[in-house]
Amino acid sequence: MNAFRSVLISGPPGIGKTTAAHAVARENDYVPLELNASDVRSKKILEQNLSQIVDNRSITEFFINKSNESKSSMGLKGKKVLLIMDEVDGMTVGDKGGAVALASLIQRTKIPIICICNDIRSTRISPLLRVCFDVRFRRSRTPAAQIRSRILEIASREKLDIQTNAIDELVSSTQNDIRQIINILSTYRLKETNMNFDNAKQIGRVNLKSSVLNLFEIPGALMSLGNWRQADLNQKSEIYFHDYNLSPLIIYENYCRYNPVETGAIWGKPKTATCQDMELTAKATEAIADGDLVDRKIHSLEQSYSLMPVHSIFSCVRPAYYIKGYSQESPKFPA
């Protein structure tokens, strides 16, 4: 680790990556300076100012909006600064090359930098992997049991009476996102003082769309049998819109890796392909081909973007209807 000037923290949303970065900074007497997706950090801006990044004062003045400079910002001068670059995997198309410029900055800067991303497999951050120490945050395999006691403590302080099975339901519906659970409870407590399982289940359905899936979670969200059974048609269609450009492609890349439950597939047991397997795969392939026709209409000169809900059904939901089942392989990025 001593060979690196920066750390790249990755992990799912709400797991505490940014909080951990701030805690590390303060524990080591650094002033954390955080930049996120709303800050200007394109390749052009970074490259124009690389020569200015020499010491703590320069890095501070570079990123502070000079028109809004205040006494608080002036107070950073002379102090050790730790730069936190949040959401580095979320750079837009206009920021193409920003990761390359950031990697160059890391190689030259004299201050420590912590980069944070949700998806370590994103091609956008590959330049950073060569210059950053890789630290990965993962959720516990038994998150409900570990989260429950803490949520009960928070609820008690806020005078909210909540059942333990209600907490488990919130953990499931938010995909173990502790931050989202606390936000849900905070909003709920404004009007209510008690939460049972039925309340949590209803709230979970409403907040399901707030759990943003990364690209590699989309195949499982649609084609995994458990997730398929829990979601209604609208919720399945909404999954497409988490990344409507790449969702159809990652479904196409991974649908053959699933063993359809319709053919008697059982989790953990390899199964020899049968005629029924091939028939279901053929139907899913046909649905994907129909989705391509809709996609061509959307991106034609007519730009019929109103067809996107239809495209979500043909390209993602309908193939998953035939293929839903089990897979023991990790999703692959579209070739």
UniProtKB/TrEMBL annotation:
<dbReference type="InterPro" id="IPR027417">
    <property type="entry name" value="P-loop_NTPase"/>
</dbReference>
<dbReference type="Pfam" id="PF08519">
    <property type="entry name" value="RFC1"/>
</dbReference>
<dbReference type="GO" id="GO:0016887">
    <property type="term" value="F:ATP hydrolysis activity"/>
</dbReference>
<dbReference type="GO" id="GO:0005524">
    <property type="term" value="F:ATP binding"/>
</dbReference>
<dbReference type="GO" id="GO:0006271">
    <property type="term" value="P:DNA strand elongation involved in DNA replication"/>
</dbReference>
<dbReference type="InterPro" id="IPR003959">
    <property type="entry name" value="ATPase_AAA_core"/>
</dbReference>
<dbReference type="InterPro" id="IPR003593">
    <property type="entry name" value="AAA+_ATPase"/>
</dbReference>
<dbReference type="InterPro" id="IPR013725">
    <property type="entry name" value="DNA_replication_fac_RFC1_C"/>
</dbReference>
<comment type="similarity">
    <text>Belongs to the activator 1 large subunit family.</text>
</comment>
<dbReference type="InterPro" id="IPR008921">
    <property type="entry name" value="DNA_pol3_clamp-load_cplx_C"/>
</dbReference>
<dbReference type="Pfam" id="PF25361">
    <property type="entry name" value="AAA_lid_RFC1"/>
</dbReference>
<keyword id="KW-0235">DNA replication</keyword>
<dbReference type="GO" id="GO:0003677">
    <property type="term" value="F:DNA binding"/>
</dbReference>
<protein>
    <recommendedName>
        <fullName>AAA+ ATPase domain-containing protein</fullName>
    </recommendedName>
</protein>
<dbReference type="GO" id="GO:0005663">
    <property type="term" value="C:DNA replication factor C complex"/>
</dbReference>
<dbReference type="GO" id="GO:0003689">
    <property type="term" value="F:DNA clamp loader activity"/>
</dbReference>
<dbReference type="Pfam" id="PF00004">
    <property type="entry name" value="AAA"/>
</dbReference>
<feature type="domain" description="AAA+ ATPase">
    <location>
        <begin position="3"/>
        <end position="141"/>
    </location>
</feature>
<dbReference type="GO" id="GO:0005634">
    <property type="term" value="C:nucleus"/>
</dbReference>
